[in-house]
Amino acid sequence: MRTVAEFEAVARERLDPAHYDYFAGGAQDEITLRENEEAYQRLRLVPRVLRGSDKRDLSIELLGTPSSMPILVAPTAFHRLAHPDGELATARAAARAGTIMIVSMASTTAIEDIAAAAREVAPDPGLWFQLYLQPDLEFTEAIVRRAEAAGVKAFVVTVDSPVLGRRDRDDRNAFHDLPPGLAVENLRNLGENRSGGNASHSIHAPATTLNGGASRRSHVREIVMSAGLNWDHVAWLRSKTKLPVLIKGVLHAEDARLAVHHGVAGIVVSNHGGRQLDTVPATIDVLPSVTAAIGGALPVLLDGGIRRGTDIVKALALGADAVGIGRPIVWGLAAGGREGVSDVLELLRADFDQALALCGGRLPADLTPDQVRR
Fold first, then answer.
1. pTM of the full predicted structure?
2. Using one digit for the tens of pLDDT, what is the confidence trace for 330-343?
């Protein structure tokens, strides 16, 4: 298989239809879902020539974590729906590729086991942890401590989910819970809600949940989305950990400026893969305004719609320091377990390397905005 689309075709054949729809689907009419990919097709590359670069070096470093390429594994939930080895296979493949895996808080494997699997392949793997800040901050702190103990190197806080987006495919399939035997393992055995105490530990705001099996297993908590979360909660997290804290889900330039003001370590330009608010712009279309707003003060990552090496070149030329890959990783996992994920990562690495060479670059940082035209 030589394209992401071919991996998806195999994955679709192998997955339960409801599970395929969960991974592939987006919010409501899926306009943003389609736009994430189609936006790249409207952009044209303008290569530079005669720059004398016969060998490329794709490696980068992000907030102290080295990566062999600017292609990261974005956080996606429920990998064991795609393959029995789930996140263990993904972690081993990411470690083999020498890249950063951002582990989903909603993983179906515990972070300790994911870290152990990665260390089977690399002694010091690049693992970050995606976090939904919970209204119960004591519970959130317990998750933070668990992730730190497992050896993660940064926290990536998803901020675009005050409530869950409505996903019509999941509604049609009545897919709102994990099947028996699967659960959100990072929320297992972390205690129950506490009552009383400081008001900062009890946010009284409308909340929705990502179930993950909690309705059947009381020892596994639910992930709660709360519209009451704000910048004070990000400051709280920064006060509780020495690790870098990034925020994921930034689309508006003013929010990027606020991120700098509030001292976050980095931002991820993301629309949740088109799974939250439908009709928001493609991430590549808002990237230039976001990078202009922060003026290089923070590293900028981008996810959403990356399927080719040319997509990666366009994102880096327009100001991203790295990109995150979500659905293609799941398609590789479903198609072939660890080897399938490795194949997807190496396919994208080779595709990016070729596109970088054809654009006259030796390093990812050689790409510049004037090499992209609409």
1. 0.93
2. 999 999 999 999 99
**pLDDT-based confidence at residue 196 (cuts at 50, 70, 90):** very low
* Rounded distance between C-alpha atoms, residue 343 and residue 264, angstroms: 34
Structure tokens at 258: 């606020």
Per-residue pLDDT at 1 exceeds 90:
no
Residue 191: closest CA among 220, 213, 168: 220
Q: Is the pLDDT of residue 165 over 80?
A: yes
Task: Give the C-alpha distances (Å, rounded to integers) separating 291 from 42, 54, 251.
Answer: 20, 30, 11
In 3-state terms, what secondary structure has residue 270?
A: coil
Collapse the DSSP code of 74 into the 3-class scheme (helix H, G, I; strand E, B; otherwise coil) and give the result.
coil
pLDDT the model gives residue 207: 40
C-alpha 137/C-alpha 48 separation (Å) is: 51
CB 1 within 8 A of CB 335: yes
Helix (H, G, I), strand (E, B) or coil at 122: coil
Separation CA 292–CA 14 (nearest Å): 43
For 114-149, how does the pLDDT look when each residue is reduced to its tens digit (9 = 90+)? 999 999 999 999 999 999 999 999 999 999 999 999
The one-letter code for the residue type at 49 is V
pLDDT in tens, 223-281: 999 899 999 999 999 999 999 999 999 999 999 999 999 999 999 999 999 999 999 99
Rounded Cα distance, 104 and 111, in Å: 9
- Across the strands, what pairs with 66? 61
Dist. CA 239–CA 243, nearest whole Å? 10
Q: Which pair of tokens denotes residue 274?
A: 């088109």
Burial bucket for residue 52 (CB in 10 Å: 0-12, 13-18, 19+)? exposed
- Residue 89: what residue type? A
What span, in angstroms and rounded, lies between the C-alpha atoms of 330 and 326?
7
Active site residues: 272
Nearest to 324 by CA among 145, 150, 94: 94
Angle at 253 between CA 251 and CA 258, to 5 degrees: 105
- 291 pLDDT exceeds 80? yes
Give the span between the Cα atoms of 244 and 258, in whole angstroms. Answer: 17
- Cβ neighbours of 314 (radius 10 Å): 26
Which two structure tokens, joined as six digits, stand for 210? 């990502």
